[in-house]
Specification:
This protein is α+β, with helices and mostly antiparallel strands. The longest helix is centred in the C-terminal third of the chain and has 15 residues. 32% of the residues lie in helices and 27% in strands.
Length: 73
C-alpha cells in the first residue's frame, strides 16, 4: 500500500485518467473528489461490499425443493 500525505486542494493521479483531489480535511474526516472516465465505476468500500454480497446471493442456484415450492402454487 502506498501512503501519501496531501493538503487541501492537492491532487493524486492514478494512471492517466483518474485524479483524486483533497477537498476538505477536519479531524479524522477527509472529503475527496474523484475525477474519472464515465466507464470507471467508483464506489465507497461499504457500498462495493454490499453490491458484491447481493451479486453473490443472486447467483446462488435454488434447490430443487425451493423450485418445486415456487412452481407448485
Amino acid at each position: 500500500m502506498l501512503i501519501l500525505s496531501r493538503k487541501v486542494d492537492e491532487k493524486i493521479k492514478i494512471g492517466n485518467d483518474i485524479t483524486l483531489t483533497i477537498i476538505e480535511a477536519h479531524g479524522d474526516m477527509v472529503k475527496v473528489g474523484v475525477e474519472a472516465p464515465k466507464n470507471v465505476k467508483v464506489f465507497r468500500q461499504e457500498v462495493f461490499d454490499a453490491i458484491q454480497r447481493e451479486n453473490k446471493a443472486a447467483s446462488v442456484q435454488p434447490s430443487e425443493e425451493a423450485l418445486s415450492t415456487l412452481f407448485s402454487k
